[in-house]
Specification:
The protein is of the alpha+beta class. It has one domain. Helix content is 21%, strand content 48%. The chain is built from two helices and five strands. A five-stranded antiparallel sheet has the order 1-4-5-2-3.
C-alpha cells in the first residue's frame, strides 16, 4: 500500500512539474498586396511624440482553451485573422495595445514592439500569456483624400 501511495505522489509531482515556456519579440509589418487597384488615397497628418515610449502590459490565463482570467478590453485589429481554436497571443497583444493607449491623448501606437512570454503547464492544459508592448504615441491631426 505504501508503494502505491509513493508512486502516486511521485507521479503527481512529475505531472505538476511538466511545463514549458517560450519567448518571442515581434513588430508590425505592413502586408504587401500582389494586386494593385487604383483607389483614392486617404492620408493623414500625424503628430508623433517620440520623447517617451508608451508601455502596455497584458496577462491572460487559459485552461483547456478557455480564458479564465485576463484582460477583456481589446484594441480592434481588422487585419487579424479570426480563428476558433487560435488567436490567443494576438488577443493578448490586443489587450496590451489597449493598455498602452488607454487614458492617453494618443490615437495610435507607432512602431509597436511586442515582447511575448508564454508558459505552458500540465502538458499544455494550462497556458499563461504575458505580453508587453512598447511604442511611440501619435495623434491624428488631419485626414484628407488625395
Amino acid at each position: 500500500m505504501k508503494k502505491v501511495v509513493k508512486m502516486m505522489v511521485f507521479g503527481t509531482i512529475i505531472i505538476l512539474m511538466s511545463s514549458c515556456s517560450s519567448i518571442s519579440k515581434s513588430g508590425v509589418v505592413a502586408p504587401v498586396s500582389a494586386l494593385v487597384t487604383p483607389t483614392k488615397e486617404i492620408k493623414c497628418d500625424v503628430d508623433l511624440d517620440n520623447s517617451k515610449q508608451l508601455i502596455g502590459k497584458a496577462q491572460q490565463w487559459y485552461f483547456a482553451g478557455i480564458r479564465v482570467t485576463g484582460g477583456n478590453n481589446y484594441f480592434e485589429n481588422l487585419n487579424q485573422q479570426r480563428s476558433v481554436l487560435g488567436g490567443r497571443v494576438s488577443k493578448a497583444q490586443s489587450c496590451a495595445m489597449y493598455d498602452a493607449l488607454e487614458g492617453g491623448q494618443y490615437d495610435m501606437l507607432v512602431n509597436p514592439q511586442y515582447y511575448n512570454v508564454t508558459h505552458s503547464y500540465l502538458f499544455g492544459l494550462i497556458k499563461h500569456y504575458n505580453i508587453t508592448v512598447k511604442g511611440y504615441g501619435a495623434k491624428i491631426t488631419n485626414i484628407h483624400q488625395k
